[in-house]
Amino acid sequence: MTAKIVEVKLRLAFTGRGDETVEAEVRAGGSRGRAAAPAGASAGKHEVRHLPPGGAAEAIRSFDPSRMIGIDASDPRAVTAALRSIDGTRDYSRIGGATAYAVSVAALEAASIELGRPMYELIGLYGEPRIPLPLGNVLGGGKHAGGGAPDVQEFLVFPLDPGNIVDAVRANLRVHTLVRKGIERRDPSFPAGKGDEGAWAPRMGTIDALEVVSEAAAAASDELGVHIGLGLDVAASTIWSPSDGAYVYGREGRRLDPEGQISFMEELADRYGLKYIEDPLQEDDFEGFAEITRWAKGRGVLIVGDDLLVTSSSRLERAASMGAAAGAILKVNQAGSLGEAMDFARACRDRGYSIVASHRSGDTWDSHLAHVAVGTGAVMMKSGVVGGERMSKHMELLRIAEAHPGIGIARLRI
Ligand SMILES: O=C(O)[C@@H](CO)OP(=O)(O)O
Ligand SMILES: [Mg+2]
């Protein structure tokens, strides 16, 4: 049985934050797949272009859907080749990465329905399929929140040893609730504001935020009997000032040169027992990443590259040759198409990098991320904790687990 594409339709759509984006409907045989692309706010400068300068309308205008007809929807590489030839630029600046994302994901969904096989199985880059650990931000700031919130973008939690995915999701939710209580104890007038991904966005600095989150995680651990790990996504490119050669924590008056930033990260990791640090340094500092990765390896801390790697196989090769980072964020829309993200996942596997399949801060209601995570053998799925566009992905993990009772849950090995 084949799943040849017979029709592709695009429409303008909006993410949960209101960013303009593209939704695609792809028909393969008698089945239809649909996907809408997410959008980042702290996007790395080496990512493909989300949309051309004229926005989603121009992306849709410049896309010729007839050139997709007859392509095998179950073959992400063939879909990528067609998208690349329609676009003709290096970074999808003509049709937009949003179009590449939407068409490639919708095509695989259509194939999955047509062939009666789950999407993750068609991605198929795992040994034994496993449910990834959910990683979510319970407190945050940076580009995802308003003034006064911490300069560090995300304070993250994840269960280390959950019995199943329901316990795992519940653990993160409990920490999220307790974080609010912890903030209110320190500031009774906290107006309960949240950032783009549903994390609490209080007026406090990095250290206070870590105190609140580690107290909440310890209390949730005791209550639920699940060990909870702590992490940060520093999104350090957003606080890096090239003209000063320094990381500028504007809200807390801290200024650190690259060596100072590495020492600060090491101090926080030691003091709070962090197990995960994403983008501790700016996106072009491969040497700095290699240094902190060497430090972290013996200590059980996973250093993860997001803006550093931008789901690009060539940047991963460079990082691997230097030992920069041990984990890799995989965001399909950073690469553009699903086929390109799958090439990246293969490279991660060959080079021994742990994959963290991730949402974007401006995400859509789609749940495909769960299939991308399971299908690429990701150890974690990073998708916030609360909010409809976050929970849709967790719910799909629950459904995958329900359909495959024997499926195990991933364990983080650093
Ligand atoms: O930095 C990140 O990891 C992401 C998602 O949390 O943010 P954005 O989508 O804004 O790049
Ligand atoms: Mg990040």
Give a written overview of the molecule.
This protein is an alpha/beta fold. It folds into two domains: 5-117, Enolase-like, N-terminal domain (Enolase-like, domain 1, 2-Layer Sandwich); 126-409, TIM Barrel, CATH 3.20.20. The protein contains 13 helices and 16 strands. It has an eight-stranded mixed beta barrel, surrounded by six helices. The longest helix has 22 residues, at 165-186. The radius of gyration is 20 Å and the shape is globular. The N and C termini lie far apart (42 Å). The structure holds 2-phosphoglyceric acid and magnesium ion. Magnesium ion binds at residues 233, 235, 278-279, 306, 329.
Keywords:
414 residues, alpha/beta, Enolase-like, domain 1, TIM Barrel, 2 domains, 13 helices, binds 2-phosphoglyceric acid, binds magnesium ion
Instruction: Give the overall silhouette.
Output: globular
Q: Mind telling me the CATH superfamily name of the largest domain?
A: Enolase-like C-terminal domain
- Average pLDDT, rounded to a whole number, is 97
Helix content: 25-40%
Distance between the termini: 42 Å
Might you state the CATH topology name of the largest domain? TIM Barrel
> Quick one: how many beta strands?
16
What order do the helices and strands follow? Answer: EEEHHHHEEEHHEEEEHEHEHEHHEHEHE
Bound heterogens, unique: 2-phosphoglyceric acid, magnesium ion
Domain Enolase C-terminal TIM barrel: 128-412
Binding site for (2R)-2-phosphoglycerate: 153, 331, 360-361, 382
Catalytic activity: (2R)-2-phosphoglycerate = phosphoenolpyruvate + H2O
Function: Catalyzes the reversible conversion of 2-phosphoglycerate (2-PG) into phosphoenolpyruvate (PEP). It is essential for the degradation of carbohydrates via glycolysis.
